[in-house]
Each structure stands twice: as structure tokens, then as C-alpha cells.
Amino acid sequence: MCSCFHTQVDADGGRHDVSILQSQVSEAVQALRAKRVPFAVQAAQQQDGGLLGVVANLIVPVALLGGLLFLLRGGPGGQGGGPFGGGDGPMGMLQSRAKVEVEPETGADAA
């Protein structure tokens, strides 16, 4: 026998899941009516979409991550570094680009 799952809402608004066998549904309805318990029957909400819903929910985050990677790599040629400066990636902006040139023969004596 197949059991049916129902959600019961008490007077305080709390929800409780109840499992009733298919053969006991009519008996439960008769017992509720005999005790004058107010109740309502609603169709179960269908989960629509399935695989299509999962794909639709993933499109936006994947597009955002792809755009971010596109900017960080510097576009189609791989040149540049997007908004972070050079081609060293996002941490390249923290490195100094200063160079020290040392000329060994200055002609001055340190005496």
C-alpha cells in the first residue's frame, strides 16, 4: 500500500508532516468531520523544472565567473591584466616596478 504524506497546521501555525495510508484517508476525513475539526485539502505543490531548473539557476553564476576570468586574463589575446594593471594577475598591483641600475665604474674614490 502506498502512504500519503500530509502537512498538518496546528492552531499556532506550526507545520507537522503526517503519513497516512491510502486506505485510511476516507476514515481520517470522516473522523475529522465527526469531531468538527476544521480542515482543508490542497493539492501538493509540484516541483517544476527538474534538470531545466538546475541549468537555469546555474547560467548567471557561471556567466559572472566567466566574465571575471576574462577580465583577469586580459581579454582574448592574454595581454594586459584587466583592471589590476600588468599581466602579473591581481597580486601584480602590489609589487613595485622600480628598477635600480648600478654603474660599477663611476670614477670616484671613496677615501
Describe this structure in words.
- This protein has 111 residues and is α+β, with helices and mostly antiparallel strands.
- Among the domains are: 32 residues, no CATH class; 36 residues.
- Helix content is 30%, strand content 13%.
- It is built from two helices and two strands.
- A two-stranded antiparallel sheet has the order 1-2.
- β1 and β2 form a beta hairpin.
- The mean pLDDT is 74.
Topology at a glance:
Layout (H helix, E strand, L loop, with lengths): L2 E7 L5 E7 L3 H10 L16 H23 L38
Antiparallel strand pairs: 1-2
Oligomer: single chain
Question: Which structural class is indicated by helix and strand composition?
Answer: alpha+beta
Query: Ranges with pLDDT <50 over ≥5 residues?
Result: none
Helix content: 25-40%
In whole angstroms, the N-to-C terminal distance is: 106 Å
> Rough shape?
rod-shaped
Beta-strand fraction estimate: 5-15%
Following the backbone from N to C, one meets helices and strands in this order, namely EEHH
Give the overall average pLDDT.
Answer: 74
Number of strands: 2
The main β sheet shows up as: 2 strands, antiparallel
| Contiguous helical run count | 2
> In what order do the strands lie side by side in the largest sheet?
1-2
Radius of gyration: 35 Å
Output the keywords.
alpha+beta, two-stranded antiparallel sheet, 13% strand
In short:
The chain has 111 residues and is of the alpha+beta class.
